[in-house]
Amino acid sequence: MQEFSKDFPYLDIKELIEYYAVFDGYKMREKLHNYENILQNIEENILKKYDKLKQEFIYDKNQKDIEKLLFRIAVGNRKIYSIYKGDISHFHGLSLYKTLFSRGVINKEISREKPIRSTRVGQIKKELRKYQIEDKIKFTYGFYRFWFTFIAPNKSLIENNKLDEVMLKIEKGLDKYVSLTFEELSNRLICKRDVVDFGSYWDRNIELDVLAKTTEGLIIAGECKWKNQKISKNVLGKLQKKCLLANFKVDCFALFSKNGFSNELLKNREKNVLLYDINSFKGLI
Questions:
Q1: Is residue 125 one of the residues assigned to a domain?
Q2: Are 116 and 131 in contact (CB under 8 A)?
Q3: 153 neighbors 71 (Cβ within 8 angstroms)
């Protein structure tokens, strides 16, 4: 983000986050100055340069399966075993992962879930005996994730010069796409509070966008919304319920919003609720 802010000082913080989500890892960033907004840059510097850029995403003889795997990581829950289906076996999947790790395309996000403990009688419940804690897979750069979310799945349209159809899909799905980057940046922002442990959290029951522990031992749980609507008190209530379900003793709840907060939430804000609007993210640059 700091690097992007230096390269594009004329972008506001919302635009900067969008550009970072799409073009982090893009090798010709100097070309992005030639067009007015992110959608024009996507069309001119990605879609119209498809033939040149696609060479960067050719890996090995298993190219078809690799593209399938990377698409599932890009649009799915990113859990390490979720890509294994009838067409990609566990053994073959591990081999593909090895190739992609070695090429620097992906890396691993380690689960923070604790192993299931045995009951007093010394046995784990029957329905949980086969349960496996899963790490998640993340792309090394935002541009790689963008490619396998929108470009590789639509290559036939691009090759047939139906760029308008692809741009409609991108425009419609861009906010959802940027939301993961916003979550990652929210975790970086919470580090400004002197934390010793942070990141997203998931287990068999819940997922939290942010779960952090400060140097003073305080636990912060957070929810991130990259949407055009303001965050309401209802979102806070859902976050609190998730923490109760997980038996987390949370000291502070943090909400991160692209478009601000409802009047009700602002007026009835409790002391243990932290609110971060889009301008808060200027702290990262």
A1: no
A2: yes
A3: yes
